[in-house]
User: Which sequence fits this backbone?
């Protein structure tokens, strides 16, 4: 059994990126994890990792060994899920990833409620605006925004989401409101995680590259800049609707608002029959706030979609 402990330590170090994170996941000390990996390398007679002061890298042998061992541990998790199927109750770990602000504001409270109802579950939440490979990084489900392309993943539409181009009255006191997309070139645009904004022109999706002297990869920072009159911003509804209602922000170019900004749950095809995932998705659909409109139709996962197509800064 010692070898399995060593293999598990190695897999978690690679999956999470550091010995400290792996130790936290395994509820042991970092020195114990380091010792287990060193013992595994000694058993195999080859180095698996290059260690530096700040990060680790896989050797060629380590890459091959991780790929094979990861499949074994995924198989173990699927076996646990099969037991859960027999018991008709969620079992094991529920690991999900979501864009940061949306995840913190909407998803985390719903996950916490779900665990209260199913305390036997182990929950892992990861919030990041980077593109996450949910299969390689061991997630059961990802919450994604916007248009989804074809891939091997399955998607379920959770709710609608709208994006607005907004500016403060103080900003429009010095420049007239734009009424056509071409007029954006005359405006100071506040740039988030992408430098192109998405619109619909006569039902056809169009992306317009924007320019400005302000940039940040933070939704709250982008909102604050817009409220203070620094320029125009394109932001999702859950950032701006309160400020639109109060008059602190003004929405422009509404005729060009694109319609493919829904919120989706995407997951590997082999998770489709998991009672744990099915119950969790039903929980999300039934409890998402009314400020995010419920989907018109509720049903089975809808087609194959991309693992990496979040729409803008969320």
Assistant:
């Amino acid at each position: 059994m010692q070898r399995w402990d060593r293999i598990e330590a190695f897999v978690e170090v690679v999956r999470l990126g550091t010995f400290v994170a792996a130790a936290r996941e395994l509820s042991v000390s970092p020195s114990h994890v380091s010792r287990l990996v060193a013992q595994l390398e000694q058993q195999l007679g080859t180095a698996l990792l290059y260690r530096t002061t700040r990060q680790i890298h896989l050797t060629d042998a380590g890459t091959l060994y991780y790929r094979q061992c990861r499949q074994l541990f995924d198989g173990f998790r699927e076996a646990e899920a099969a037991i859960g199927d027999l018991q008709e109750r969620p079992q094991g770990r529920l690991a999900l990833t979501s864009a940061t602000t949306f995840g913190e504001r909407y998803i985390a409270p719903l996950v916490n409620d779900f665990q209260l109802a199913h305390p036997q579950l182990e929950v892992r939440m990861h919030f990041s605006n980077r593109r996450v490979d949910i299969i390689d990084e061991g997630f059961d489900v990802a919450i994604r925004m916007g248009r989804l392309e074809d891939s091997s993943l399955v998607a379920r539409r959770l709710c609608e989401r709208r994006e607005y181009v907004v500016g403060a009255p103080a900003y429009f006191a010095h420049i007239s409101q734009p009424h056509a997309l071409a007029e954006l070139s005359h405006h100071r645009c506040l740039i988030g995680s992408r430098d192109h904004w998405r619109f619909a022109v006569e039902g056809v999706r169009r992306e317009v590259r924007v320019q400005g002297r302000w940039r940040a990869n933070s939704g709250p920072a982008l909102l604050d800049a817009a409220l203070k009159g620094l320029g125009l911003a394109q932001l999702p509804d859950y950032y701006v609707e309160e400020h639109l209602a109060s008059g602190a922000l003004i929405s422009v170019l509404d005729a060009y608002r694109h319609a493919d900004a829904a919120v989706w749950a995407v997951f590997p095809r082999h998770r489709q029959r998991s009672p744990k995932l099915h119950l969790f998705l039903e929980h999300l659909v039934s409890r998402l706030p009314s400020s995010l409109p419920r989907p018109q139709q509720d049903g089975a996962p809808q087609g194959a979609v991309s693992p990496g197509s979040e729409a803008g800064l969320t």
Notes: Residues 60-87 form the longest helix (28 residues). Residues 89-161+261-305 form a domain with the D-Maltodextrin-Binding Protein; domain 2 fold (CATH 3.40.190.10). Confidence is low (pLDDT under 50) at residues 293-314. The chain has three domains: 2-76, 89-161+261-305, 163-256.
